[in-house]
Amino acid sequence: MVLLFSLSFLAPILAAIFGLSLAGTMLWRKKKNAEIRTKSMEQVANELGLTFSPTDSFGLIPQLQGFALFDRERGRWFNHGKITNVMRGWEGETQVYLFDYSYTVSTGKTRKTITQTVFFANDKNWFLPNFHLKPERWWHTLQKSLGIDSDINFEENPEFSEKFWLKGDFEALIREQFTPELQGFLTERPPAHLEGTNYYLLGYKPKKKMDPDETIWFYRHCLEIVALLQQKKGEALLKLAELEKVKEIKLHD
Question: What are the structural domain ranges in the chain?
Answer without folding.
Answer: 30-252
